[in-house]
């Protein structure tokens, strides 16, 4: 990154850094090094909403460094005659201007006559529109210059695309699918102004003629319906005088156009806000402000106290009346019965072998066995089932007496 920053500095660029964090973060030293090598500044913040403010402040700071406060000679160039052919500007000297560069395709009307040759007033076409850039500070010393009014008005008049004189002003307002053209006339021109008419050239090649009516002491107005997409152009004719109107177009696509009374859109938005629980926001910045996370607590002391009292009373009642003793006896009897049942089932499933089944049967081909010593006496057979039941019952009775 060191070589890259050196290339930036060589090209006249500065690099500033805005870090989301604090100066104690582990990457803070790296950010400071980048800002120092880039010739810029370093900022730290813990609030992401302030990032835009830091970027804006840094831009203004380094833009201000190209602001020239010393006076410089300003020369009139050939482009001034295209901007204001009826005016005859003269060279002058002024201070407080931005040191800029002319963009490709721009026409220069005013330019400093020093080694910088910086553009002071430039203009150019931007697709169907017009752009005018003035580098002088209109609130500085240039505002006191005699040519201030001519330069400013000629620039605005050229950007508006009209040849209206100082005593006229034409404006266009849109009401749904209609364009309303209004022309303000001075008191001196009103006396000698003949009947005016409106001529509009549609995108398809058609021509629309509409009369202009007086709607006030100094205001003429006419309406035309915009029925097809594209660019409309028009003029206002008053006798032998022709005043051009700025380009007009449909505000939206034709399928979305509706002829509605004024204020219908505002009422629709108000109804949507009321139905969805919204509100009218005059400041758009308030919509992006996130409220701080709030914590809420619900006290449960009363519920815990009630549970404690119930358990306390239950303990006293158990010690006084022995309400749980029958339950414990029932549990013991149930456990004893389950144990006896399990033992009985185990005895029934295990068969007891007899002496007849253990001795092998003699065969006819076998010889009689030789005499053998007498076998020891057989063990006593296991007790029968009734005797086992009697012993089990005796054990159960002894166990119950011991527990009771």
What is the CATH topology of the domain at 67-160?
A: Rossmann fold
Largest sheet: spatial strand order:
5-4-7-8-9
* CATH superfamily grouping of the domain at 67-160: Class I glutamine amidotransferase (GATase) domain
For the record, what CATH class of the domain at 67-160 applies?
Alpha Beta
Order of helices and strands: HEHEHEEHEEEEEHEEHEEEEEEHHHHH
Global mean pLDDT = 78
Number of β-strand runs: 17
Radius of gyration: 52 Å
Return the structural class: alpha+beta
| Helical proportion, percent range | 25-40%
Task: Write a structural description.
The protein has helices at residues 2-10, 28-38, 51-64, 79-83, 148-160, 187-192, 264-276, 301-321, 325-349, 355-358, 385-403, and strands spanning 15-20, 39-45, 67-68, 72-76, 92-94, 97-98, 107-112, 119-126, 129-134, 168-175, 178-185, 196-201, 207-211, 213-216, 219-225, 231-238, 241-249. It has a five-stranded antiparallel beta sheet with strand order 5-4-7-8-9. It has a four-stranded antiparallel beta sheet with strand order 10-11-15-14. Among the domains are: 2-64, no CATH class; 67-160, Rossmann fold, CATH 3.40.50; 168-255, Macroglobulin (MG2) domain (Immunoglobulin-like), CATH 2.60.40. The model is unreliable at 363-375 (pLDDT under 50). The two termini are 91 Å apart. It has 404 residues and is an alpha+beta fold.
């Amino acid at each position: 990154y060191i070589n890259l920053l050196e290339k930036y500095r060589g090209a006249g660029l500065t690099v500033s850094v805005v870090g989301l964090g604090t100066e104690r973060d582990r990457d803070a030293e790296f950010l400071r090094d980048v800002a120092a090598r880039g010739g810029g500044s370093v900022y730290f913040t813990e609030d992401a909403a302030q990032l835009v403010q830091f970027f804006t402040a840094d831009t203004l700071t380094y833009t201000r460094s190209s602001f020239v406060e010393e006076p410089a000679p300003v020369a009139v160039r050939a482009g001034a005659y295209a901007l204001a052919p009826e005016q005859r500007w003269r060279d002058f000297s002024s201070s407080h201007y931005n040191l800029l560069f002319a963009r490709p395709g721009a026409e220069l009307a005013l330019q400093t006559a020093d080694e910088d040759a910086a553009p002071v007033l430039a203009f150019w076409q931007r697709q169907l529109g017009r752009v005018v850039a003035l580098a002088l500070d209109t609130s500085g010393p240039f505002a006191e210059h005699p040519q201030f009014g001519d330069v400013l008005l000629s620039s605005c008049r050229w950007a508006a695309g009209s040849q209206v004189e100082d005593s006229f002003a034409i404006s266009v307002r849109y009401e749904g699918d209609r364009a309303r053209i209004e022309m303000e006339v001075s008191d001196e021109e009103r006396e000698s102004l003949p009947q005016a008419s409106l001529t509009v050239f549609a995108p398809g090649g058609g021509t629309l003629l509409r009369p202009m009516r007086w709607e006030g002491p100094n205001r003429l107005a006419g309406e035309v319906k915009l029925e097809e997409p594209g660019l409309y152009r028009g003029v206002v004719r008053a006798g032998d005088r022709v005043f051009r109107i700025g380009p007009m177009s449909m505000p939206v696509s034709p399928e979305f156009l509706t002829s509605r009374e004024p204020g219908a859109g505002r009422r629709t938005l108000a109804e949507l806000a009321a139905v969805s629980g919204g509100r009218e926001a005059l400041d758009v910045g308030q919509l992006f402000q996130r409220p701080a996370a709030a914590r809420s607590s619900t006290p449960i002391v009363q519920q815990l106290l009630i549970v404690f009292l119930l358990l306390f009373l239950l303990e006293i009642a158990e010690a006084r009346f022995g309400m749980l003793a029958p339950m414990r006896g029932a549990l013991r009897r149930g456990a004893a019965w389950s144990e006896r049942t399990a033992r009985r089932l185990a005895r029934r499933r295990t068969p007891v072998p007899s002496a007849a089944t253990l001795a092998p049967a003699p065969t006819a081909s076998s010889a009689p066995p030789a005499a053998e010593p007498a076998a020891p006496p057989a063990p006593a057979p296991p007790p029968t089932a009734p005797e086992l039941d009697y012993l089990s019952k005796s054990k159960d009775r002894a166990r119950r007496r011991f527990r009771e």
